[in-house]
Amino acid sequence: MSEGSPKSTHFGYKTVEAEKKADLVAGVFHSVAAKYDIMNDVASFGIHRFWKRFTIECAGARPGMKVLDLAGGTGDLTAKFSHLVGEKGQVILADINDSMLKVGRSKLRDKGIVGNVNYVQANAEALPFPDNHFDIITIAFGLRNVTDKDAALRSMQRVLKPGGKLLVLEFSKPQHEIMRKAYDLYSFKILPKMGQLVAKDADSYEYLAESIRMHPDQETLKQMMQDAGLEQVDYINMTDGVVALHRGYKF
Asked: How far apart are CA 49 and CA 32, in angstroms?
């Protein structure tokens, strides 16, 4: 396992200097932020709502807990957690991208979700929070965009309380050949066209499809979480493994 970021890394299928990846990813999300929610619904046929709802259920948030919604984007999970932890709890919506944070903050405030939610621009590889701070950390569809995933997982483990839980919701590897072929056809032929039609941005959605293919598969990510110090790590495949929810604990 490397200490610090590698010298080169993947940006989709391209190989780039590691120090440049964050800026390249930022460009993608600056571009798609305004249309991010509608594209999630269109591109997943609304199924992303089920994936996120299941993640919330598995999190087991209770009143008074501290929750970190990392790479929280436009705040879908934060909105649910805010209600679950109540007035005495706290939810931090953290994202490296200020455009996404602004969209999330505006959306949640329009819904009247204020008081127990704070917004922090943060890099997952070096989280600006104390050790042993959060009861629950979620990162939904964000880990694949991180340059040094091992460093990010170690950082998450550090800020979890003993007994705390990390949930990683991410695109993964379909389990059956027929689904893999259909998914490839959809991702590379249809999704960029949707991106062009809805968000006026085919290139960003082509990158997002490529980034999914470069992300570690289910077993590899499980091992990475264990290597980061998390225990009792398991995962649940959804939609035949198009998406997987990994769970790990800090003891």
From this structure: 19
How far apart are alpha carbons 104 and 217 in whole angstroms? 29
Which residue bears the tokens 């919330």?
Answer: 56
Longest dimension (CA), the chain: 48
Contact 137, 68 (CB under 8 A): yes
C-alpha 42/C-alpha 143 separation (Å) is 22
Q: Which of 22-26, 38-42, 142-146, 200-204 has the lowest mean pLDDT?
A: 22-26
Helix (H), strand (E) counts: the chain = 10, 9
| Start-end of H helices in 111-235 | 149-159, 177-185, 191-199, 202-214, 218-227
Distance CA(170)–CA(143), nearest Å, equals: 7
Contact of 138 with 210, CB cutoff 8 Å: no
Using the 8-state DSSP alphabet, how is residue 72 labeled?
-
Q: Report the C-alpha gap between 84 and 107 in whole angstroms.
A: 18
Is residue 24 very low, low, confident or very high in pLDDT (cuts 50, 70, 90)?
A: low
Model-level pTM?
Answer: 0.85
Q: Which amino acid, 44?
A: S
pLDDT in tens, 91-145: 999 999 888 899 899 999 999 999 999 999 999 999 999 999 999 999 999 999 8
